[in-house]
Amino acid sequence: PRTIRLADYAPPAWLVADVALTFRLDPQATRVLSTIRFRPNPDSTDRTFFLHGEGLKTISATIDGRPATLREAEGGITCDVPDAPFTWEAEVEIAPAENTALEGLYMSNGIYCTQCEAEGFRRITWYPDRPDVMAPFRVRVEGDLPVLLSNGNPEASGPGWAEWDDPWRKPAYLFALVAGDLVAVRDRFTTLSGREVDLGIWVRPGDQGRCAFAMEALKASMRWDEEVYGREYDLGVFNIVAVDDFNAGAMENKGLNVFNSALVLASPETATDGTYERIEAVIAHEYFHNWTGNRITCRDWFQLCLKEGLTVFRDQQFTSAMRSEAVKRIEDAQTIRRHQFKEDQGPLAHPVRPESFVEINNFYTITVYEKGAEVIGMLRRLVGAAAYKRALDLYFDRHDGDAATIEDWLQVFEDATGRDLSQFKRWYSQAGTPRLSVEEAWEDGTYTLIFTQETPPTPGQPDKAPQVLPIAVGLLNPNGDEVVPTKVLEMTEARQSFAFEGLSARPIPSILRDFSAPVVLQREVPSAERAFLLAHDTDPFNRWDAAQALARAALMDAAGGAGDPAPDWIEGLGRALADTGLDPAFRALLLDLPGDEDIAIALAERGDVPDPDAIHSGRARIRRILAERLSPQLEAAYHEGATPGPYDPSAGPAGQRALRNRALWILTAADGGARARAQVAADENMTNVLAGLSALLSIGAGEAEAAAFHDRWKDERLVLDSWFALVAGQAPPESAVETARSLADHPAFAWKTPNRFRALMRGLAGNHAGFHRADGAGYDFLADWIVRLDPVNPSVAARTSTVFSSWKRYDAGRQERMRAALHRMLDRDDVSRDLGEMAQRMLE
Ligand code: B3K
Ligand code: ZN
C-alpha cells in the first residue's frame, strides 16, 4: 500500500461546479446516477482527470453526452476529457446490504445510511473524493420507504421519492443519505437573525421516548454557538439520525448528522450520567462542526486537527458552560494524561498534524483530537480571551467556504495579535510529550523557578526543539494563603528561569495550574507538600492533582509490595471528602484512583517493568485500607450522594451520584458488598445500578445480580453492550479470558456490530491484569477476534489493535507473546490496509 505524504500535496486539477445524484435504492443493487459539472482549476497546471472509486460496477459513463473510455488507475479511473468545462454523467451499481465495512452506503437494521468521512464517498460513485473539492449537491432518493433523507433542505417529495438541495459547497465526505422506517421527534429553533429551523431526531420506531435529552442538548448548542462564537445555523432543517451499526461516535454531515444510537438515546432506566454527559458533548460537537469543519473544511486529511482539535475545544468550552468548569478541566486533563500520553509513549506516537499515512482512518486519534484541542487551549491562554475572539472572527470571515490549513489558522492569530507563532507551530509538527522539570531557588525575598524542557524521541523524530509552554503558576504562603495569584509564564527556551520578588517567606509553588500545557511535570515533591496543596491550593486542577500524585505514589509503592500508604494522603483525602463546601463532583474525582494501566505506565516511565498482577493486588490492598481508615467520611459521602426523587441528569445531581458511587466502590472492599447489593436492588436509575453491579463484580461477587441484570435487559441493545463491557471488564483477572470466551459464545454477541464488538474487546483489554495474563491467553483472544473482524470491518479491527501498542512496556515473556500476536495480525495475505499499517507501526 502507498504512503501518502503532506509534502506531496498538489491542488486538484479539476473543480466541481455542482453535483446532482439520483439513488435508486435496493439492498443488493442500488443504482447511483451522477451528473457532475467539472471545470479546470485555474490554480493548477495539471489537466489529468482522475476520479476515485472503490468496488463500483459501472453501468455507463459519458462526458458531455458521449460515452467515455475509462482507464483503471490506482484507486480509481482516468479518461480523456476536453480542455474546458464539461459534464460527467455516470450510472453505477453498489450493494449496500453486502457492505460490512460500514463505509459508503450500507444498511443497519434495514435502514440505509452512509458514512463518507474520510474516504467513503468513493464507494458510492466515481468522484474526486478529496476535501479540497467542494460543490453544492442536489440529491434525489428513490425507494419504497417511509423516510428518505439527504443533506440540505427538502425540495420536493412524493410517494417513494424525495429531493434534497444543499446549497452550501461541501466536500464529498460530508455527503449523507438515510432511508428507511424511521420516526422523528421534532422541535424548532429560531436563530439569532430570526431564521426558523426545523429540528428532527430520527430513530427506530419505539425509541422516540429517548430523544428528549439530545434535543435539548441540540438547542442549547445552537444557542451557545450564537452567543459565544457568533455562529448561526444556515439551513431550514437540521436532522439527526440514530443508527445501531456505526464505526465512530457520530458524523457531522451537512444538515444531516448521523449518530451511533449509543450517543443519542437516553432514558434514566437505560443510560448512565456518563452517557448523558457524552450525549450532550457529542451532539454539541457535531453541531459545532457546521462552522468548524463544514463551512470551513480541511484542505487535505493532514489538516484533520484543524476541524477536530478546534471542534473538541469548542465542545469542551460548551460542557464547561453547561456543567462545572473545574470538573470538566480535570476530566479533560485526565483523558490526555491517561490516553494521549500513552499514545505518545509508544510506537503509534505522531504529531497533531501527521506528515504521512497509509490509511487516514488510522489517524482519528486522541492526539489529533484531544491534543489538538489542548494546543488551541494553549494558544488561547497565550493570547488571552479577547484576542482569541478576534482571531476566530477573522478566521470565519477570511476562510468561510475554504478548504483551509493549519498555516491559515495560525496566520489569523498572527494577524489578529501581531505575535510570531513560528515556534508555537512546533506543537503541530513535533510528536511526543514534553517533560518539564523544575528547580527552585530562594534568596533575599526572591523565589526563582528554573524550568527545563525536554521531549523524548518518537518514531521518525529523534531530536526535538524547545516548544512554547504556557506555565500557569501561583504561589502560596506556608499558612496557606495565596501570595501570588495565577500568572502564565511563557517558556520558550530549553532552560529558563522566572523570578518572583518581594516575598516575605519562601512560598510553596503551585505549578501548571489548570493543566496549562499538555506536559509531564517532573518534580520530586514531598508528600507533606502535596497534602498541603490538596488542602490549600486555590486552583482546582492542582488541588486534585496533588491527591492524584499521592494516590499514584501509594499505588506504585503497593505494586512493589510496600505495606502502608502515606498518612498525609489518607488524612488529606479524608478532610477534603468531609468538606461539604466542595462540589461533590470534585470530591468524586479526588476518589478516582489511577487505574492499573496508569500505574503500569508510571512504573515504566520510572524505568521499572510493571507486573500486572502485583499492580492489581496492590490496588485491591490500597482500596481496602481506604475503606477501613476513611469509613466514616466515605459513609457520609455515600449518604450525601443520595438523590431521591425523579432522576435528573444535570451536573448537580450527577455529581452527587458520582461521589456516592466512588465512595461505594471503595466501601465495597470492606463490607462484603452489602451496600452495593442494596443499591442494585433499589433500582433507582441506571447510574446507580451499574455502579453497584460494578462494585460487586470487582470483589468477585455479584454473579446472581449480573445474571438478573442480563435477563432484564437482554432486549435493550445499548444496555446489553454495557453488560458485555462490565462483565468482561470486572471479571477476576485469573478468569477474565474464560469469561470473555463465554461472552463471545453468547447468542447476543453480534460481533459485526461495532458497539457489541468494542464492548467485549475493550472490556477485556481494560481489565489490565486479565488481558495481560502471563500465558498470553488474553493476547490470543484479542488477536483472534481482530483477525476475524479485519476482512469484515478493517477500520474497527485496526482501531481495536491499538491495545497492543504497549507491548514494549512489559517483561520479556509478555513482550514476546504480544509481538507474536501482532505478527499474527500482520502476516496474512489478506491483511487490510488499515490493520496492516497499525500492526506494522506497532512492531517497528
Ligand atoms: N468527523 C467524524 C469522525 C469520522 C471518523 C472517520 N473514520 C466525527 C467527529 O469527529 O465529529
Ligand atoms: Zn469531530
From TrEMBL:
GO terms for molecular function: alanyl aminopeptidase activity; metallopeptidase activity; zinc ion binding. Its cofactor is Zn(2+). Coiled coil: none annotated. Residues 528-844 form the Peptidase M1 alanyl aminopeptidase C-terminal domain. The keyword Transit peptide does not apply. It catalyses: Release of an N-terminal amino acid, Xaa-|-Yaa- from a peptide, amide or arylamide. Xaa is preferably Ala, but may be most amino acids including Pro (slow action). When a terminal hydrophobic residue is followed by a prolyl residue, the two may be released as an intact Xaa-Pro dipeptide. The keyword Hydrolase applies. Residues 99-174 form the Aminopeptidase N-like N-terminal domain. Residues 213-427 form the Peptidase M1 membrane alanine aminopeptidase domain. One of its GO terms (biological process) is proteolysis. Signal peptide: none annotated. Pfam families: DUF3458 (PF11940), DUF3458_C (PF17432), Peptidase_M1 (PF01433), Peptidase_M1_N (PF17900). Its EC number is 3.4.11.2. Keywords: Aminopeptidase, Hydrolase, Metal-binding, Metalloprotease, Protease, Zinc. Residues 432-523 form the Peptidase M1 alanyl aminopeptidase Ig-like fold domain. NCBIfam families: pepN_proteo. PANTHER family: PUROMYCIN-SENSITIVE AMINOPEPTIDASE (PTHR46322). Belongs to the peptidase M1 family. This is Aminopeptidase N. It comes from Wenxinia saemankumensis.
